[in-house]
Amino acid sequence: MRRRRFLGIGAAAVGAGTLGAFAVPTAARLLTEGRPGLLLNSTVPLPEAFQVPLPVPPVLRPVSSDGGTDHYEITQKAARLEILPGLRTETWTYGGSYPGPTLAVRSGRQTVVRHRNELPVPSVVHLHGGHTPAESDGYPIDLILPFGSDRSLAAPGMAGMAGMPGMEHPADLPLGRITDGDRSYTYPGNQRAATLWYHDHRMGFTGPGIWRGLSGFHLVHDDEEDALPLPRGDRDLPLMLADRAFAEDGSFRYPAVDPALAVPGVTDDYMNGVLGDVLLVNGAPWPRLDVDRARYRLRLLNSSNARLYRLELDPQPSGGGALVQIGGDGGLLEAPLAHDAVEIAPAERFDIVVDFSRYPPGTSVRLMNRFGSERTTEVMRFDVSSRTVSDDSAVPERLSDFERLDRAAAVTTRTFGFRRSRSDGWTINGQPYQPGRALARPALGTTEIWRFFTDVHHPVHLHLDPFQVLSRNRADPGPYDAGWKDTVDLRPAESVEVLVRFTDYPGTYMLHCHNLEHEDMAMMADFVVE
Ligand code: C2O
Ligand code: CU
Ligand code: CU
User: Fold this and answer.
1) pTM reported for the whole predicted model
2) pLDDT tens for each residue of 7-19
3) How far, in Å, is the centroid of ligand 2 from the Cα of 316?
4) CB 519 within 8 A of CB 199
């Protein structure tokens, strides 16, 4: 009873404050509508690029292991981190660092992560790309309340957790599985090697939560991948890309409609998404790294709220094809794909091998963002050493064998339109997110074709199972659509068909846009696997 009342009041409090965010766009604003986001500039002077060494997030050790399970513990807490040299930034962290600690787990072993919430706000943890039973998937109202909070509306940051207009919690539905202070998430590990990530997924507040630091890597390893001669150890680097804006005192800037984060959403101008003018890699601004003249595996993750990158090395090695893609969101490709540039949308991962021995000793190689402007055109720099080193790594011609899902096996085709509505913000099939309202009920074990189409730019993400891209605009998939994916980027007025098989776990899962401002402003839906 108490919970229900509490959520109800939160929703009511939201109404008036956010109406502005859903105003009908003016003619002038329509000109910028197609862009995935608006730049929010820092008000602090920005540091020079390539001064800070690239940090690599620490790998978390299990607190215990038994038979088939590894147990981990993470405390979510605020920390004052030095992100810009000489300044402190109040950051929301997993375990005191940004990015959070990396979990490195074995396929076939179960992972249990106990999260304790010492943040000033409720949180939800989602393992992105995880093949996870519904109760551990981080359903957006399955809140972990802050440790020691008494569930009263008086607690700071607690109001409005029921979400947006149109995102109210229907009175006749069960509440989320709310826990006090901590909870454990169980990941059975029944999936192939892949670069996954974990992040906050609280309804209405995923954008500010990740912007403030709630993001970390979760790497799955397996025997198939271990048997390949790919670069490893210090030459296997997770790289988390994120853009941010900073205020004079070093704090993060974010255009929340309510800076206290009691009410979700951003101000009208940032409705398309928030872009920052500082590019961080693993939490450091425009870092640099000394590299050997050898192959490196770069596990690129775009954890930005809304920014789309086109990554390219400068200079290119002679002969081009510097970015050899070996994997995507859902693990290894069948065969490597050499690119000159890679386009990476929010939440996507590209597993890339770069051979720095293709450069003369002493070359400085910049990772560029060709979709950026001014300071956001440079990402980081690799300084190629002049030493001669041995490198026994290789990129085999055949990486993995996996089943190609077959169009003929699909039992149905469903269509999902990702569009802005005049009255309800960002919607899927005209519906703003409402917990408990399923837009699809696929049967466990079946394969379906899901067709997405867009008005403006939307990176579309599915929980539970990865998919294979079948077509883009009724033609073949694009150059960045290979392999198993869990997020597919759609440009304005595009349509993409994917094949997905719903496996192992019945229950309620999410389909949403991974532009976090769109997601928070209701571009999300439940689907129920039955
Ligand atoms: Cu990375 Cu539902 O999210
Ligand atoms: Cu996800
Ligand atoms: Cu979107």
Assistant:
1) 0.92
2) 322 332 333 223 3
3) 34
4) no
